[in-house]
Write a structure and sequence with these properties.
With 135 residues, the protein is of the alpha+beta class. It is built from 3 helices and 7 strands. α2 packs across α3 (124-134).
């Protein structure tokens, strides 16, 4: 297992419109469990004013997309598909536990670009050259 400092957390809410909800962290960590399912555990220690919001998410047990910035705020956020494992009151604050899998957006971007180039008729060496030019 590898543990990292959670610096920023955003919930990507997609009920009616896609909307990012920034969660103000008091503290947090993220653990790459390195298990057979490639699951990550995210713990966000936050203000209790968020209790109702996260309790509803926990009750629904729907998948939730989150973006987590790890180690430094200047890092690109990683995107995860998660479910809420637990919501716990801790004095005047609370924590929320998420379990999920990371989405490799770079891989998806590369696959989309290659698919688009193939659909445009590029093949072989020409495909490789056009891909290098655009990537």
């Amino acid at each position: 297992m590898k543990t990292f400092k959670l610096k920023k957390l955003e919930i990507v809410d997609h009920n009616e419109d896609i909307e990012q909800k920034n969660i103000t962290l008091l503290d947090g960590l993220i653990i790459n469990r390195e298990d057979d399912n490639s699951q990550w555990l995210i713990e966000a220690y936050i203000d209790k004013s968020n209790f109702e919001y996260f309790s509803k998410l926990y009750e629904k047990q729907d998948e939730i997309m989150v973006q987590a910035t790890i180690t430094k705020e200047s890092n690109e956020p990683a995107t995860f598909i998660t479910t809420v494992l637990g919501v716990n009151e801790i004095g005047d604050d609370m924590n929320v536990l998420f379990m999920g899998k990371i989405i490799d957006r770079r891989k998806n971007i590369v696959e989309d670009l290659l698919t688009d180039l193939i659909n445009q008729g590029f093949q072989g060496k020409e495909l490789l050259e056009k891909f290098k030019e655009l990537a």
